[in-house]
Amino acid sequence: MEPFREYKGLVYPLERTNVDTDQIIPKQFLKRIERQGFGECLFYHWRFDENGQKRAEFLLNADQYQEASILVSGHNFGCGSSREHAPWALSDFGFKVIIAPSFADIFYNNCFKNGLLPIVLNEKDVEELIQKAKSPGFNLHISLENQTVEHKDFKREFQIDPYHKEMLLNGLDEISMTLTFENQISHYEQKQLTTGW
Amino acid sequence: MQPKTIIDKIWEQHIVHREEGKPDLLYIDLHLVHEVTSPQAFEGLRIKNRKVRRPDLTYATVDHNVPTTKGRLITDDIAAKQMTTLQKNCDEFGIPLADIDHPDQGIVHVIGPQLGLTQPGKTIVCGDSHTSTHGAFGALAFGIGTSEVEHTLATQTLWQKRPKTLQIKVNGELGLGVTAKDLILAVIAKFGVDVGTGSVVEYTGEAIRQLSMEERMTVCNMSIEAGARAGLISPDKTTFDYLKGRKYAPDADSFDAAIERWKTLATDPGAEYDRTIEINADDVEPQVTWGTNPSMGASVSDCVPIPDHYDKKEDREAIEQALDYMGLKEGTAIKDIAVDHVFIGSCTNSRLSDLKAAAEVIIGQRVHDGVRALVVPGSNTVKEQAEALGLDKIFTDAGFEWRESGCSMCLAMNNDVVPAGGRCASTSNRNFEGRQGSGARTHLVSPAMAAAAAVAGKFVDVRQFGKVYQ
Ligand code: SF4
User: Fold this and answer.
1) Domain that holds residue A42
2) The pLDDT value given to residue B470
3) Where does the record place the Aconitase A/isopropylmalate dehydratase small subunit swivel domain (chain A) (predicted)?
4) I need a surface site. Which of A1, B4, B368, B405 has the fewest CB within 10 A?
5) Is the CB of B409 within 6 Å of ligand 1?
6) Which residue range forms the structural domain that includes residue B390?
7) B317 in the same domain as B228
8) Which residues of A fall within a CB distance of 8 Å from B314?
């Protein structure tokens, strides 16, 4: 995984709440056995009509958002299924950062395993960003190290737990790291054998 | 000793490593695997030349993609590849698999309990959000993504941040014709789809104690729809009685000792939760969702909401978007909504008692003209048991299709799809846009309510329908 430190990118506002994983990546695309190539299926039913034509009214299809890499949306983003295809699709499409007032737990967790940074800001700030991002060329500067989101006079700090931060900053392979705890794991298994728990 | 909740007890028993400022490293007792969220995980193991640490604590089946038509002919090449990939992976890594033709095949959350793999006090994970179902046994069971599937396969552990605890206390008693499904839908309608975010829920209270194991599974299944990481119920005699004699449950010699251990799990009197919310079961009526997330629901005697009655702009917009997608006019009475599809199945409501409840409602009646109705048992075993009781005959005589087991129309990954604009009374757990097919409209209900809708061609209050409840 690529380390993530500083990032600057164009913002796309998705003005909805409770965006669920079925919308992020509809189930007909879950049959594949690879990790790549899900970007074209992102928000499929919102982006395309029954004939596979782009829906002009869906903002992400507008010229001004073609380079967008930061997504701002309403609360409870990523609710629904545990499918990691959702962060795969977002990241394959080119998104690096998702900003929302709250995220569903499993989705939030899945983001970090895929180099995607989910940022929680309060409702008011998110609303402000959504409005600003409606005008062309609105960029945000994100520093994971300083935990800040910035655009000119807009500067906010965000919270992230040190473990997740570390993982993204260093692009860690979590399994390799866990395997260094082999002794503790074996020890636990021994104890379980004797106590029945 | 400080009184503890079952959540704290299970958590503490499973800590392999703990360090300030880090999540805990938790041991996983049971890892369930299915075809959709696992291929990339096995591929990851292969690339790094890693093994599955405990194939004996891992169990796989195929459910999401499988055809449910007789003969189970797979016409979709990509789906077929996903299934053969799972066979190949289980073979290579030595994992037991209930494959498509295996007697134990079924929806992963139906077969775990049925086989006795699901037991009190276990930590259980699966690459599927409805893993919360297994919490009905007093297990800590939660859904994970594919990276965590790989992590569990390789290490039998997961890094997890300690969750907050949320008690949902259900007082009183459910009325006749009001089911566990109505209860959980009412909870979500009242408290919202993110009330449980960051938390593990314990369901407590008199009404919960009275539920059968299958009903408890329905409740815990939908914990994720309330945003919770997991939902569970302290084990009791109902739990132990259910488990006795099951294939992978402790055998006769060790069963009593197991009960003694399991009994220590229940939440201690006086234990504190981070939050408690309450609901009165007596007030719950049969529920029908009208919108595009599970909290957008109402009692069968109510109406679809009127956006203008809401203060917050965000709420008004969400309702408008939902009604637009659902093709419903504001203020419509739920009982005036006609359906053209009925689906009885899914890990929420496809167990024997669910099928019985539906069959009782339709016995001797006919599915309404123009309605396509499907019953999809949750497992091969459920199907066999139902057939032994003659339920299949009741359903087919009434004009239902009687299918092989699988997820089917719950997420419509196979050919069981609701067409665009179609309207389905469904016993599943999600009414998201496009869930049952692109442009399909889903109303979540209990099995009895779905069965009644199939006969009436529209929603009716099952308590005033047919002879069962009168
Ligand atoms: S029945 Fe539906 S919700 Fe349950 S595991 Fe299958 S697809 Fe998921």
Assistant:
1) 6-194
2) 47
3) 1-123
4) A1
5) no
6) 290-464
7) no
8) 17, 74
